[in-house]
Structure formats: structure tokens, C-alpha cells
Design goal:
The structure holds two protein chains of two kinds. In chain A, helix 2 crosses helix 3, helix 3 crosses helix 4 and helix 9 packs across helix 12. Helix content of chain A is 68%, strand content 0%. By secondary structure, chain A is mostly helical. Chain B is an all-alpha fold. Helix content of chain B is 67%, strand content 0%. The chains are: A mainly alpha, B mainly alpha. At the A-B interface, helix 2, helix 4, helix 10, helix 11 and helix 12 of A face helix 1, helix 2, helix 3 and helix 6 of B.
Chain lengths: 272, 270
């Protein structure tokens, strides 16, 4: 087969796949154009090696979408180094990733970080940035325990604020306990169940889509998800985490609450 | 698998997305994707493209696509006639305490126990209800029936303001439907946080429903409740009496009686 002809014949499909990837990862304007060119180059590399690898076992458009997304993520791993943005930021696009990097990795405040982000992404208005910043988890060093109170340390301002602090501490403790229980319970799930939970509750995929991927019966999958959720609920109740605790965390926020669906496979890290 | 990167091959991921892998390869891939954010992200994004029929298939796929379209048409018609709230109502019936004070049309009676904090979130069945509500929210379409389902489902997911918007859209499209008007009033009551304007709008919506059917029990109950919350005690007593004239024996009637008597007891002796 003449791979150059194949490439040219499918150029519009390639460009559509690149445009789709740009849209999914929030690239626009010159950034999107740059990325589309690098995606084409990727397909030309090594005498069309990527196209030659294609065996026709899935549709060409799906294959190209996978290849071009992988290319995008590889590029980003080069840029980000060891720091890896959250899934949430990755979904919201490069502006959100930059904001998260500045706030979470570099420790900038929201004002300073927003100013920098708006210089590069003027299309993001203050309200959008604020909404994005609200979702950024700031990694803070662990608090030191048993620190003696010094004169510089302020006494609790009032009984009310002391009570708030106490409640917040209790909430944080409950959140940590909840995270640990959920992690233990999820770790006990088989890989397929863990994947189902992630696809359904983290990625909000439709049950019909998950069923197609797993080649499973949709109705049975609904029941299976209900069973898995019930299992998690039972684990929480057995560990003394009441639904009211969860409601409390959802209402007042609990930074310590992290749902870990299992450790990630290690990726080859590119030196920063 | 691609040994150089530990990630599966691109075509293998594509086949997973399209659901055409053999069981062994699929199991291997599931093991990997369950723990790899990158691959999962690719799978999730790519699945969006697979939702739409592809153009680069063979001629027989065109026939299959035609058949799928016919089936989709049948499904669409089926969905148009099927109430998307059936499963939501069933899950609602399992609750120990109903999450909103007002009465929703077509939903079974569930008592309301108000305790300190959010009572509904203490009930494990509430999460099941929310899951069913989410399914209803995902039902596509803009028909009054679907908009109404979205509105009611949003109420259970704590999005009362969005629920009002969806129910307004349903009520505008089908103004003669008392169910939509009354459920809109229920959503306004839930979204009001005692805001008098929203409560007055709720009364107005109930009045509209009652113009169509003067004996609609949901609208009568919600009207009395909104007046009660507005602090218009005497009108609320009259409204509860009106409700009890239509329904004197159901659990809702017992609740209406309880509310009415409580208001009476709180009034200064005349």
C-alpha cells in the first residue's frame, strides 16, 4: 500500500480527529493549529509508522482519535514533568491546568494565579477562573502536632470560631476515615468493578456506553452498579461512617476526603 | 500490550472503546485501564465519537445503520410515551422520610421527619433515589414530559433552582397539565428557602392548576403549604380545609390535618 496516498486520502479524517482532541482538551486558536500540525507530523514520522501499524480491527477514526490523544498526553507529560494535573483540570483544558499548576504546585494565591492565566488565556473570565480555582486542591504540608503556643499565635477569637474550628477538625477526621474505608472497600473490588465505578461516577459515562465497552448486558450492569454502591454504603456504615457524616462533608466541604479507586500504573517519567 | 510503555496498543484501546475485543484481551485491558488515568481518559473521550455512527464502514453497515435508525426511532417513540420518572418514583417510595416538603404528582406518600441537619441524607435509600434521578436527568429530549422529568429529578439532586427552570419550560409547553403546574409549585417551595416571592409564585402556579382541575389534590396541598410557609395563617387553614374536603382519608390528609391544627393552635384566641 502507498502510505502517502493513504495519509492524503484520510487527511480530512485526521484533521477532524485532531480538532476533536483539541476541543476535548480546551485548545483553541494558534495552540490548536500548532497541535494539529504536530499531530500530522506524528503520523508522517518513521515512514508513516503509526498508519502502518493499523490493522483495521477498529474503525480508522477511533484509531486516529486514540493515537492523537496519546500524542497530546505525551506532549503534556514532557511539559509538566513529574507534576501531574488532576483529571478535572485536564478535562477543563489548558487554562485550568495552568491555574492548577500555579496554585497547587507553585503555591500562588488565586489572584496572582488568575492574572497569569488571563494573560495567556484572555477568553477565561474572572467568574470562570473563580469556579475553576474552587476545585483546585491545595496540597499543604502536614500540620505539626503538639506545637507549643507562642505569644505570636493568636488565641481563638471567640467561642463561636473555636467551635467552628472544632467542627471543622472533626469533619476533617471523618473525611480521612471515610477516605480510608472507601479505599479499602474499593481495593477489595475486582479491577472490572473498580473500572465500572470510575467510568460511571468519576467520568459520568452513560451505563449504555460502559455496557458496550465491557460487552455486558445493560440491565444487568445497572443492577451491578446498584450492588457495588450498596457494598460501599455497607462498608461505610459498618465502619461507623453515617450518611449524615457524608451529608455534612458534602455540605461544608472536606478537603481530606479523597476517593482513591486504586493505584495508578506507573508511567515512564520524563525528566522535568 | 505495548511493552515499551506498558500502555495497551492504540488499536487495542480503540477496539475496547468499540466493544469488539475478545474476552481475554478485554480482561487484560480492563486490568490496565482500571488503574491508569491516561488510558481511561482516552477511552472516555473516544467513546464520545463512537456514539455517532461512523461513515467509513462497508456497504452492509449502511443497511445496519438504517435498521439502527428505525430501532432508534422506535426507541424514541417508546421513550416519548414512557414516563422517565417511573424508577425515580419507585426509589422515592423506599425512603424513610421524603426529601422535600411539598407533594409531587404521581409519587407515593412518604412521611417527612425533620431532624437536625439534612434528614434525607441519613437514609441510605436516598443515594439510590439520587442514582435513579441521575438516570432521569440523562434522558435526552425537550418534550414537556422529558423536561418535567428533568425538573423533578433535579430536585432530588439538590438542584432546586435548575429544577424550577426545567419545570417552567414544561409548564409553558403544556399549560393545561395540572401535574406540571403543581410540581413547579413544589419546586418553587423547595427552592424558596422561605423567600416570599417564590412562595407567592408557588401559590400562583397552584391556582393555575386549580383553574384546570379544581380538585387536583397535589395542587391543593401545595397551595396550603405555600400559604402556611408565607405565614398567611388564616388563608392556610382555609386551604387545608379545602384540601381535606377533597381528600379526607389518605396519609396526606392526616398530614394536612396536623398542619392545620398546628396553625390553629398558634393563633391568638379571637
Amino acid at each position: 500500500m502507498n502510505w502517502e496516498t493513504f495519509f492524503l486520502d484520510n487527511l480530512s479524517l485526521i484533521d477532524r480527529a485532531a480538532a476533536f482532541v483539541c476541543r476535548k482538551y480546551g485548545l483553541s486558536g494558534a495552540d490548536a493549529e500548532d497541535f494539529a500540525s504536530t499531530a500530522r507530523l506524528k503520523l508522517l514520522e518513521d515512514d508513516y509508522a503509526v498508519l502502518r501499524k493499523f490493522e483495521g480491527k477498529c474503525s480508522l477514526s477511533t484509531y486516529l482519535t486514540v493515537v492523537i490523544q496519546r500524542h497530546y498526553l505525551d506532549q503534556k507529560i514532557h511539559e509538566w514533568g513529574k507534576w501531574r494535573p488532576s483529571m478535572r483540570a485536564r478535562r477543563a483544558g489548558d487554562g485550568a491546568i495552568l491555574l492548577e499548576r500555579l496554585m497547587s504546585r507553585d503555591g500562588l494565591g488565586i489572584g496572582e494565579a488568575s492574572t497569569i492565566v488571563r494573560q495567556k488565556y484572555p477568553e477565561l473570565d474572572a467568574q470562570t477562573l473563580q469556579a475553576l480555582a474552587a476545585g483546585v486542591v491545595i496540597r499543604q504540608p502536614r500540620r505539626q502536632k503538639n506545637v507549643e503556643r507562642t505569644e505570636e499565635m493568636r488565641e481563638p477569637a471567640s467561642e463561636a470560631s473555636a467551635e467552628t474550628e472544632l467542627l471543622s477538625g472533626e469533619r476533617e477526621g471523618a473525611a480521612r476515615r471515610t477516605s480510608a474505608v472507601l479505599k479499602r472497600a474499593l481495593d477489595g473490588f475486582p479491577a472490572e468493578d473498580r473500572l465500572i465505578m470510575r467510568l460511571r461516577f468519576i467520568d459520568a459515562l452513560k451505563v449504555s456506553t460502559i455496557a458496550r465497552m465491557l460487552q455486558a448486558d445493560q440491565k444487568q450492569l445497572y443492577r451491578r452498579i446498584d450492588r457495588l454502591v450498596a457494598g460501599l454504603r455497607e462498608a461505610l456504615l459498618a465502619a461507623g461512617v453515617g450518611m449524615s457524616d457524608i451529608g455534612d462533608m458534602l455540605t461544608y466541604g472536606a478537603e481530606a476526603l479523597q476517593v482513591d479507586f486504586g493505584s495508578e500504573t506507573s508511567l515512564p517519567q520524563v525528566p522535568p | 500490550m505495548n511493552p515499551s510503555s506498558l500502555h495497551p496498543g492504540d488499536e487495542e484501546l480503540g477496539r475496547f472503546v468499540e466493544g469488539t475485543l475478545d474476552p481475554n484481551s478485554r480482561a487484560r485491558l480492563v486490568d490496565h485501564v482500571a488503574g491508569c488515568d491516561e488510558c481511561r481518559m482516552i477511552v472516555v473521550n473516544s467513546s464520545e465519537l463512537v456514539e455517532t455512527p461512523q461513515a467509513d464502514r462497508r456497504w452492509w453497515l449502511a443497511i445496519a445503520a438504517g435498521l439502527i435508525l428505525v430501532a432508534a426511532g422506535v426507541m424514541f417513540t417508546y421513550n416519548q410515551h414512557r414516563d422517565p420518572l417511573v424508577n425515580v418514583a419507585a426509589a422515592y417510595g423506599q425512603l424513610k422520610s421524603r426529601p422535600i416538603e411539598a407533594r409531587l404528582s404521581g409519587f407515593p406518600y412518604v412521611p417527612r421527619h425533620v431532624t437536625r441537619g439534612e434528614a434525607d441524607e441519613k437514609d441510605p435509600n436516598f443515594f439510590l433515589l439520587q442514582s435513579k434521578a441521575q438516570d432521569a436527568i440523562e434522558v435526552p429530549g425537550q418534550s414537556p414530559r422529558v423536561l418535567h422529568a428533568h425538573g423533578v429529578a433535579l430536585l432530588f439532586n439538590g438542584r432546586a433552582d435548575e429544577a424550577v427552570t426545567a419545570l417552567v419550560a414544561a409548564a409553558i409547553r403544556e399549560p393545561g397539565n395540572t401535574r406540571y403546574q403543581s410540581d413547579l409549585a413544589a419546586a418553587l417551595i423547595a427552592a424558596s428557602r422561605l423567600d416570599p416571592k417564590k412562595l407567592e409564585s408557588a401559590v400562583a402556579m397552584c391556582d393555575r392548576a386549580l383553574q384546570v382541575d379544581s380538585r387536583a389534590p397535589d395542587a391543593l396541598f401545595n397551595r396550603a403549604l405555600a400559604l402556611d410557609m408565607l405565614g398567611r395563617s388564616r388563608e392556610a387553614i382555609a386551604a387545608y380545609d379545602h384540601y381535606l374536603a377533597v381528600d379526607s382519608s389518605s396519609p396526606w390528609a392526616a398530614e394536612a390535618t396536623h398542619h392545620r391544627d398546628a396553625i390553629r393552635a398558634s393563633l391568638p384566641p379571637s
